[in-house]
Automatic annotation (TrEMBL), chain A:
Pathway: Cofactor biosynthesis; molybdopterin biosynthesis. It comes from Candidatus Accumulibacter aalborgensis. Keywords: Molybdenum cofactor biosynthesis, Transferase. Gene3D superfamilies: Molybdopterin biosynthesis MoaE subunit. It is an enzyme of class 2 (transferase). The lineage of its organism: Bacteria, Pseudomonadati, Pseudomonadota, Betaproteobacteria, Candidatus Accumulibacter. PANTHER family: MOLYBDOPTERIN SYNTHASE RELATED. This is Molybdopterin synthase catalytic subunit. Belongs to the MoaE family.
From TrEMBL, chain B:
Keywords: Nucleotide-binding. It comes from the Bacteria. Belongs to the MoaD family. Gene3D superfamilies: 3.10.20.30. This is Molybdopterin synthase sulfur carrier subunit. InterPro entries: Beta-grasp_dom_sf, MOCS2A, Mopterin_synth/thiamin_S_b, ThiS/MoaD-like. Pfam families: ThiS. The gene is moaD. GO terms for molecular function: nucleotide binding. One of its GO terms (cellular component) is molybdopterin adenylyltransferase complex. Coiled coil: none annotated.
């Protein structure tokens, strides 16, 4: 299990190959990549800065991935989240889950993203034509995370 | 009781600093009491009471209003998270 918080970009192909590492018990590898959008809440975004809580962020991410591994019989998982200044089109986050079958790989990947959005201490500050603003949390993200609590 | 307190994101900007070390008076023993104590200092501190859905962590774990505080704890206040 790999969890990284970093300013630098990542190469998806390299990261997925490292997760797969030719392990023949892996039959499915599901991944999600999040990017900076050029529009948010009706305004053009020229750049974004991601702030985090060093120490707690890494612990929170590790706990989310560990919970995914408890819930599903997956082989391995990878989570990389960038911080610092980003531009539209830049990669923000990569979640990848390797398992024997696609069902648990898809589910665990979605679970990790839904929990990350609501439980990991990151904050987005975006710059628009009207100046800088902190991105507001969305109720839909909370609802997406809550559906796993059954 | 001495504590380290951290503020993040919009709350850090409203309060005007990212961290402080603080000696708590007797009688403050949980998050609710700490918020009350900080807000009573006036100035920019009442922001803590007006932030929508304020979140708090003690020693880097999410906490509740009744989470107890111990000497040396690291307490963090922040708005709802928006990563991913």
């Amino acid at each position: 299990m790999v969890v990284r918080v970093q300013e630098t970009d990542f190469d998806v192909g390299t990261e997925l190959a490292a997760l797969h590492r030719n392990d023949p018990q892996i039959g499915a590898l599901a991944s999600f990549v999040g990017f900076v959008r050029e529009m948010n809440d009706g305004a053009g975004v020229s750049e974004m800065t991601l702030e985090h809580y060093p120490g707690m962020t890494e612990k929170a991410l590790a706990a989310i991935v560990a919970e995914a591994r408890q819930r599903w019989a997956i082989v391995d998982a990878l989570l990389i989240h960038r911080v610092g200044r980003l531009l539209p089109g830049d990669q923000i986050v990569l979640v990848a889950v390797a398992g024997s079958h696609r069902g648990e790989a898809f589910a665990a990947c979605q679970f990790i993203m839904d929990y990350l959005k609501t439980r990991a201490p990151f904050w987005k500050r975006e710059v628009t034509a009207d100046g800088a603003r902190w991105v507001e949390a969305h109720a839909a993200d909370e609802q997406a995370a809550e559906r796993w609590q059954t | 009781m001495r504590l380290k307190i951290l503020y993040f994101a919009g709350l850090r900007e409203q309060i005007g600093q990212g961290s402080e070390e603080l000696d708590l008076p007797a009688g403050v023993f949980d998050i609710a009491g700490l918020i009350q104590f900080l807000v009573a200092r006036g100035g920019q501190w009442p922001s803590l009471a007006t932030v929508r859905n304020l979140r708090y962590a003690v020693n880097q774990e999410m906490a509740r209003l009744d989470t107890p505080l111990c000497p040396g704890d690291e307490v963090a206040f922040f708005p709802p998270v928006t990563g991913g």
